[in-house]
Automatic annotation (TrEMBL):
Coiled coil: none
Ranges for domain HTH arsR-type: 29-118
Taxonomy of the source species: Bacteria, Bacillati, Bacillota, Bacilli, Bacillales
Pfam families: HTH_5
Listed name of the protein: DNA-binding transcriptional ArsR family regulator
Length: 118
């Protein structure tokens, strides 16, 4: 059985591919939405930040709990938390003198994204 040979698309076919892609992935139509999606994936693009997200998938935590769990400096964890907030991966709220971090509830299937097991 012969394999079909891969063919390079011409200009019109490339334009049609882009149109179909934008229909399927609507965020590609707006530069602001593209940048927001890029910030989300950038936020997940670091091992420490993935650990933080995994911890927050288990329960909400304050900075001191994350520092203790990760064995990192407070300034390092704070830096990673800021990137996660910018990427809209996590949310923060104040409770007295503590800032409590939680996953953004609008993100569906975070366990699946993280490869969690039951």
């Amino acid at each position: 059985m012969a394999m079909n040979e891969w063919m390079i698309l011409n200009k019109e076919e490339c334009e049609e591919l882009l149109k179909e892609t934008q229909e399927k992935f609507s965020y590609l139509k707006e530069e602001e939405e593209i940048n927001a999606k890029a910030a989300f994936f950038k936020a997940l693009g670091d091992g420490t930040r993935l650990k933080i997200v995994s911890l927050l998938a288990m329960r909400e935590c304050c900075l001191c709990e994350l520092v203790e769990a990760l064995g990192s400096k407070s300034s390092t964890v704070t830096h990673h938390l800021k990137l996660l907030e910018r990427g809209d991966v996590i949310q923060a709220r104040r409770e007295g003198k503590f800032t409590i971090y939680t996953l953004n509830p609008s993100i569906k299937n975070m366990d699946l994204l993280l490869g969690g097991e039951d």
